[in-house]
Design brief:
Helix content: 25-40%
Distance between the termini: 34 Å
Structural class: alpha+beta
Order of helices and strands: HEHEEHEEHEEEHEHHHH
Radius of gyration: 19 Å
Number of strands: 9
Mean pLDDT: 82
Length: about 240
């Protein structure tokens, strides 16, 4: 069997991580504002300048503009270019939480970036990185096994003085994983309710819990809970069209 054939059939580990690390401008600016960021990958050039595209999202234009101003004011960023709405055809559009979004291209100091620590160890972005309230949520895939993943995360924690919590970890083959929908486009409340419902068997058949029981856990009405789930399901279904 060729190396390519072996790789195509290998199982992948999929990880969702909650993390914090010191000196990161994205954590700093989201901690100071009510808006959030979706990171679409980072490139570090030969001049020691990192470049990345980000989606700023918020419930209002004022929240989005406030975060962009914080990015401009950061001593860790060199330049910020807002991308015109007309730049994107539908294939470039990003589904994000909140009511307002703005794309931007940022050049920044990569000395405190944690991206290379993951990429150099064989981790690959599976979905955009979500940054809100001074925390990052990462979705990654890797061909390393679970024991190797544990060891690598410990290495990154020590190397970057980082806090890394594993939200979820699963093993699957490469085909369905790379096309799977992400919860990064959900609002915080939608994501919280949807993940809780899924973890408690609401989407199993037969169901292992009821909407009324789930609503009681969040101290909200059944109608409100179902509305959160309906909006979450709609966004997730749109993501796989």
């Amino acid at each position: 069997m060729s190396t390519l054939e072996s790789t195509e059939k290998a199982e992948l580990i999929r990880l969702t991580l909650d993390l914090w690390h010191p000196g990161c401008w994205t954590l700093h600016v989201t901690e100071k504002t009510d808006a959030g960021l979706l990171g679409h990958g980072v490139y570090t050039g030969t001049e020691n300048i990192a470049k990345g595209r980000f989606t700023v999202y918020g419930d209002s234009t004022a929240e989005v503009e406030s975060l962009i101003e914080e990015v401009r004011a950061s001593d860790r960023t060199f330049s910020v270019m807002e991308i015109e709405k007309s730049w994107g055809t539908r294939k470039h559009e990003v589904t994000a939480p909140g009511n307002t979004t703005q794309e931007m291209f940022v050049e920044f100091d990569p000395s405190n970036s944690i991206d290379e620590a993951f990429v150099s160890r064989g981790f690959v972005y599976d979905h955009p990185t979500r940054i809100t309230d001074g925390r990052e949520t990462w979705s990654l895939v890797t061909h390393n096994n679970r024991e190797e993943v544990k060891e690598l995360l410990d290495e990154i924690r020590e190397e970057m003085d980082a806090e890394i919590d594993v939200i979820s970890i699963s093993t699957t083959d490469s085909s369905p994983m790379l096309g799977s929908p992400s919860t990064t486009q959900l609002s915080e409340r939608q994501r919280e309710v949807f993940l809780f419902a899924r973890e408690n068997g609401y989407y199993e058949w037969p169901r292992e819990t009821t909407a009324r029981d789930l609503a009681a856990e969040f101290d909200i009405s059944k109608t409100t809970l179902l509305e959160h789930l309906r909006k979450a399901e709609s966004k997730l279904l749109t993501a796989v069209e």
